[in-house]
Amino acid sequence: MNMEFVRKLAIPMEVKEMYPLTGAMAAVIEQRQAEINAIFAGKSEKFALIIGPCSADNEESVIDYISRLARVQAQVADKICIIPRIYTNKPRTTGDGYKGLLHQPDPSNKPDLFKGIIATRKLHMRAIQETGLSCADEMLYAQNHKYLDDLLAYVAVGARSVEDQEHRLTASGIEVPVGMKNPTGGDLTIMMNAITAAQHRHTFIYRGWEAHSMGNPYAHAILRGYVDKFGKSHPNYHYEDLIALAGLYAESGLQHPACIVDTNHANSGKDPFAQPRIAEEVLHNRRLNPEIRTLVKGLMIESYIEDGAQKIGEGCYGKSITDPCLGWEKSERLILDIADAL
What we know:
This protein is α/β, with parallel strands linked by helices. The chain is built from 10 helices and 12 strands. It has one domain: Alpha-Beta Barrel (TIM Barrel). Helices cover about 40% and strands about 15% of the residues.
C-alpha cells in the first residue's frame, strides 16, 4: 500500500475523557437542541440562521465573532435562533490547500491531526462556555463525527459528500438536525435520496462496530446553487426553485419537510456581498406563499469579522483564509434586517 501510517490516534471516548462536558454545558446544549429541533419539526415559528466563517481557522477570532453573535442573538431571540458556524473541516475541490483546523491547528505549520482533533473539540466547548451558543459543523469525515457528537447543535453534509453512502448512514444515527446540500451538479434527486436514507434506520459498519441507527427525522435539504458542465454557477433559491422542492417533498413522504437556503457558494457565485440581497428575496418569497414559508426554516450565511478573504500568512485578524465572507458590520445589519422582515 502506497501509504505511511504515522501513528494511532486517540479514539473519541478517550478524547471526551480528556475534555469532558460540564453539567452547565450539557444544560445549554439540551435547551438549545429542544429549540432547534422544534424549528425543524414545524413546532416553532422561529427562523434559523446558520452563520459564521467559511472555515474556523483561528480560535481567538472565531470566539470573538461568536461572542458578537451572542449579543445580537439576545436582541432577536423572539424571532431568530442563531446557530454559529464552526466549520473545522474544509472540503477542497482538488484535494489541495488548507483543509481546516482539524488538519492544521496552525495554518502556517504542517498538518497534525491529533492536535487538530483536540483543537476542534476545545473550540466547540469554548463557544458553549463563553457565549452560551452550541454550534454547527460540517461532517466532512463521517468517521470523525464521534469526536464532537455531544457538542454540536447542527450538522451539514456538503455538496461533495451528499452522495456518499457512509455520510448518509452516519447521518441516520445523528440526533440533531442534519442538512443535506444539493450536489455541485444540482441534481435535487440526489439530495432527496440522501435525506430519505438519513431518515431511515440502517445497519452498517461504523468505526469498526456493527452499528444500528434509529433514523434522523430532522434530516433536511440545503439549497446551495450548482455549477453546470461549463463551470458556470446557477442559483436555486428563487421562488420557482422553492416551489419545485416543496413538490419533491410532497411526493417523498418524508418527515418534517424543511429547507435551509445557503446564500453563498453557487447561489451567490461566491460573492459574499450578494448574500443580503439573496436573503431579502427568500424572505419575500416566504411572505408571498405559505407553502414556502412552511418549507424554508432558515438561511446559511458565510460571515466573519472582516469583509473578503486573504492568503495564509497575511495576518489580518478575523478575515477568512478560504472563501470570502461578509464582514461583521454588514452581518449585524443583515441579522437585524431579517428579524424586522420576519
